[in-house]
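Ticket #4471: structure export looks truncated?
Reporter: QA, pipeline team
Priority: medium

Steps to reproduce: submit the single chain below to the structure queue and open the exported record.
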Amino acid sequence: MLVRSRMWERPSGRDARRDNLVLTLLRVPPSDSHMDRLTEQEPEPPHSHRLRTNRVTLRSAVYLITSVTSKRRPIFTNIAAADCVTGALRHYHDRGNVHSFAWVVMPDHIHWLLQLRVGTLEWLLRAFKTWTSAQVRRCLSTPPRRIWQPGFHDRLVRPHEKLEPYIGYVVANPVRRGLVREIRDYPYSFAEMCLDEVVPVMQRPWTG
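Actual output as written to the record:
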């Protein structure tokens, strides 16, 4: 069962003002047909998946995905742009394409810890980037030609590895970058467990 983090809870007490601001940004995710149509209209350029050349996607495997904005622009400091990305992340979980264990939307990149259930990583990231690119451009007064860098990085989580350190690493990103002091204070992160129960991991939980 998916346990929502504080960013999806109803506002209460001293967190009400911050949570009310965040909740106004959570809109209905796009329909499946609209996302598929955009994917067909805006294919990514040649060699966009070069980071996964000759790699095989393992169905039901758990991956830590990292995708970076074009030229490392801090696009997601724009609240509406960040909202578009969080909506898409939630959409693919709700649709059943993936099971999301954790994610975070940083100003210039995302981390997404997921179990792949449908399709391939290439298809998933292509559809995700295509839809979010179209929506984010509408949020910016002078949108760049490209929102995302081509390609993405993925790390396969081995069966013997525990997920908790990976979850702690993902949601601790804003703390490591100095954006917030506590992981629960960052509005654009999610963990399957309550954020108050997550142990922050300040270094990569893997070697090599």
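Status: closed, not a bug. The export was complete when the record was re-opened. Leaving a note from the reviewer for reference: The domain at 6-10+17-23+58-197 is CATH 3.30.70.1290 (Alpha-Beta Plaits).
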